[in-house]
Amino acid sequence: SIDQLVLHSFDVWWGRRTTMTYLHHLLLLFFISGSSLIIKYTDAAADAANVFFSTISDADKQPYTTWLTTDNAASYDRSIFLSTTADPTKGMATFWKITGDDFHVAFATMATGWAAFGIAESGGMFGADVVSFTTADPTILVDGYILDNRQVRMDTNSQDWTLISSTVEDGWIIVEATRKLDTGDTQDNTIKNDSELWGPPSRIIAAWGDMEFVSYHGDNRARASVRFFADPSSSSSESDVLLDVLEKKSDGYFDVVHDAYDIPAQRTTYKFLCKSFDELKDQFVSGGSNTDVIMIGATPIITKEARQFVHHYIVTAIPSCKNSGNEGIDYFTREHIYVWTPGDHGMVLPDNVGFPLFDSGTNQAILIEMHYNNPKKISGITDFSGARFHYTSTPRQYDAGIIQLGDPFLGLRGVKINDGFTQHDFTCDGKCSSTFLDEPVTVIMERLHMHKTGTRMVNEVVRGGEIVHTAKVEVFDFDQQGAFQPQQDSYQLQAGDEFRTTCYYKDGTVFGEGSQDEMCIGYMFYYPAAKTIAGFPFVCPYPGNYPGQFPCEAKYKSTDLSDYDGLGRIFGTPLETQETTTTSTTEATTTSTTTEATTTTEYTTTTPSTTTDATTTTTAAAGATITASPYLCTG
Question: Which residues does the UniProt record annotate as the domain DOMON (predicted)?
Answer without folding.
Answer: 90-209
